[in-house]
Amino acid sequence: MAFNPSKKNIPLLKPRTSEVLPQKIATPPEKSIGEKGREGEQALAEWFSDNGLAYVAVSQNKDTFARLFRHEVKRPDFLLLFDSLGMIAVDAKNITPYQPNKIVYYTLPLEEEVKKAIAFERIFRMPVWYAVMENVGQEVCWHWISALKAVEVGFVETNAEKGVQFLKIKRDDFVRISTGADLAKLYLQRLPALKNLSRLPLGA
Predict the structure, then answer these.
(1) Cα dist. 34→2, 37, 71, 86, 132 in Å?
(2) Are 141 and 177 in contact (CB under 8 A)?
(3) What is d(CA 196, CA 156) in angstroms, rounded to the nearest whole number?
(4) pTM of the predicted model, to two decimals?
(5) 35-83 confidence digits (pLDDT tens)
(6) How far is CA 190 from CA 17, 24, 53, 59, 104, in A?
(7) I need a surface site. Which of 29, 95, 165, 184 has the fewest CB within 10 A?
(8) What's the CA gap between 54 and 97, in Å, rounded?
(9) pLDDT tens column, 83-95
(10) Is residue 163's pLDDT more than 80?
(11) Would you list the DSSP string of 89-102?
(12) b/e map of 32-47 (b: 16 or more CB within 10 Å)?
């Protein structure tokens, strides 16, 4: 009897398909506060250089600061020279804004950050400014505010988990800086009042 492959006793094999398993997409770990801070410092240094600004980066090594100041004063990240006006201190910030409503805010720790920056300003007779980084598409811009104005316009609130006070500051109270020429806007800033500053102790 001739062999007939079409007979029912011959099983038909289905084409084999490879099973495709879903692949997990690896998400990069969230950057630490220190990593984000160093990223902000590097970005601001590059921005200063790109805009032809004269600056000095301040070492944050504890051994380079007198013990007298270590727990009372927070040193800035940069000293920035304005040719006709002198030097200002600048602290770079790479922090995430939050928007509980339609208003965008930045926050700064009150005791460990702002008060110690003001102590630096009082001791060294040098204005301290914060420069907060913002990525806008492929460009980087900066939101600037003086430590004194931050105290005056900011709202003091308390972190419920840590019990630490911080300043909540509207982004509209900052000066938006995109180019070196924009820095002239800093000298048009005025404090709306002095009532909050007058409450700070002399050793703040």
Answers:
(1) 81, 5, 19, 30, 15
(2) yes
(3) 10
(4) 0.79
(5) 888 999 999 999 999 999 999 999 888 777 777 677 788 899 999 998 7
(6) 72, 52, 24, 30, 21
(7) 29
(8) 29
(9) 777 899 999 999 9
(10) yes
(11) EEEEE----B-SSS
(12) eeeebbbebbebbbeb
Sheet holding 86-93, edge to edge: 54-57, 78-82, 86-93, 128-136, 139-146, 175-177
Q: Tokens 């009042």 map to which residue?
A: 193
- The yes-or-no verdict on residue 108 having pLDDT over 80 is yes
Which structure tokens are listed for 187? Answer: 């000298």
How far apart, in whole angstroms, are the C-alpha atoms of residue 113 and residue 73? Answer: 9
Ordered by where they begin, the domains of the chain are 33-199 (3.40.1350.10)
Cα pseudo-dihedral 57, 61, 112, 123, rounded to 10: -60
